[in-house]
Amino acid sequence: CSAFSQKSCEECLKNVMCLWCYTNNTCIDYPVRSILPPSSLCSLSNARWGVCWINFEALIIAMAVVTGLILVSITVCCCYCCYCRRRSRSRLDDEEEQLARKREERRLQSLQRKHERKLKHDEIRKKYGLLQDSDNPYSRFENE
Questions:
Q1: Where are the beta strands (DSSP E) in the chain?
Q2: Residue 58 confidence (pLDDT)
Q3: In the chain, where are the structural domains located?
Q4: Edge to edge, what strands does the sheet with 18-21 contain?
Q5: Contact of 19 with 27, CB cutoff 8 Å
Q6: Are 23 and 5 in contact (CB under 8 A)?
Q7: Half-sphere exposure of 56 (CA within 13 A, CB side)
Q8: How far apart are CA 138 and CA 111, in angstroms?
């Protein structure tokens, strides 16, 4: 990297392992052992890595903001999906319960109508003498 010193930022940053410092226009090896270059080597506002148009400080801030936005959006999506799923489940349970209630009401109305029909038929049978004795349901039918 030191071979690119006193040339240009673009030539220095073609190699990924190099860091350009604008204070003294030098190209130095990127300190791989530490994540951020120490201020004794070059201040963050004057250091360039990757591209020449943005300083290292702004690059770190931009990457932190983008990462934060991604994490917040993932968290919001997860919470929203869990809330919607729980809400739709409760809505489906309510609809199912309502359908069961309606089904039971229809069944009770059907039984009531069936009972009323049986009473009416028994009344007609009684009127015409077709009603059998309840104590002897197996009596013989006689022709007169």
A1: 18-21, 26-29, 47-48
A2: 83
A3: 2-54, 56-128
A4: 26-29, 18-21, 47-48
A5: yes
A6: no
A7: 20
A8: 27
